[in-house]
Amino acid sequence: MKRLLSRFLPVGAIASALFVFSTLLAAAAAADGGDWAASVNFPPSEKPVRLFNGKDFDGWEGNTGENGTPKYFSIKDGVIVARNEADNAPAVSNYLLTKKQYRNFRLVFEGKLAESPMHSGIAFWGKKYETGGQPYSFQGHLVMFPAGWGFYDLFGRQGIYRDDGRAKKADNGDWNKMEILATGNRIRLAVNGQLAADWEDPKPETCIAGPIGLQLHSNKVAQEVRFRGLILSENPEERLITVTAQ
C-alpha cells in the first residue's frame, strides 16, 4: 500500500492517507463486530498499548495449561477464552494476570458471558493471592460483569459498590463495550457508551499498584467468559472517552 501511494503522493500525504485508511479499517472492524477497542480514539497525551497481542499469552501469567497448570485460559480467533467444565471447576476464582503492575490507567475492552450466569470481572489495585491451592487468585478490587454488576473488594470488604442500573448492559451472550478509568482512589466505568458508575474508595490506602486480572469465577458447572480488545494507557486524562449517551 505504501509503495503504491508513493507513486502518486508526497511523503506527508502518504502518512495522512495511511492514518485515514487504518482508522477506516478499525471502524469497519468494530462495526462488523470485530475489534471495537481499536476504534476508540485515545487522547493525544496518552500512549495506548495492547495488553493482549491476539496470538499468545506474552506478558501474562495464569492457568493456561503450561508447566502443568490447569487450562482455564486459552485463545481462540484472537479472543481470550476463560472456561472450565463441571469436572475441573476451580475451587476458588482464578485470574489471568499481567506480569506488569499498573496504578493509574484507562482500560478499554469488550467482555461477554458465553455460558452459565456466573459473573466475571476485571481485577486491579491489588496482588496475586494464593489460596485454596490456587496460586493465581487475587486480593484487591474487582469490576464485575456481565452479571452481578458492581465493584467488589476480593478477600477484603467484599461488596463495595452496587450497580444502580443507569447504563444498558448485555447480561448474557452479547459483547459489552467497556471502559475502566482508575485514578487516585476513583473508579469510573462506562458500558456501551453510557456512564455506569463513578465511585471513590473511602480507603485510598487499598488502591495500590498491581497486575490487571481477568477473572474466571469458581463455579461447579461449565462456564465460559470471553475478553477482547484490552487496550490500556497509563496516567490518563481525567475523563471517560467512550461515553456517547447521557
Uncertain spans, ≥5 residues at pLDDT below 50? Answer: 1-6, 11-33
Major β-sheet annotation: 8 strands, antiparallel
Structural class: mainly beta
What would the average pLDDT be, to the nearest integer? 87
Query: Rough shape?
Result: globular
Number of helices: 2
Order of helices and strands: HHEEEEEEEEEEEEEEE
Write a concise synopsis of the structure shown.
By secondary structure, the protein is mainly beta. Helix content is 11%, strand content 41%.
Supply database-style keywords.
11% helix; 15 strands; mainly beta; seven-stranded antiparallel sheet; 2 helices; 246 residues; globular; disordered N terminus
Overview of this protein structure:
It is a single chain. This protein is mainly beta and 246 residues long. β11 (176-183) and β12 form a beta hairpin. The strands form 2 sheets. Strands 1, 3, 4, 6, 11, 12, 13 and 15 form an 8-stranded antiparallel β-sheet that branches. The protein has a 7-stranded antiparallel β-sheet with strand order 2-5-14-7-8-9-10, with no helix packed on it. Helix content is 11%, strand content 41%. The model is unreliable at 1-6 and 11-33 (pLDDT under 50).
What's the helix and strand layout?
Elements: H1 2-6, H2 11-31, E1 49-50, E2 60-61, E3 73-76, E4 79-84, E5 94-98, E6 105-115, E7 120-131, E8 134-145, E9 150-154, E10 158-162, E11 176-183, E12 186-191, E13 194-200, E14 213-216, E15 223-234
Antiparallel strand pairs: 1-15, 2-5, 3-4, 4-15, 5-14, 6-11, 6-15, 7-8, 7-14, 8-9, 9-10, 11-12, 12-13
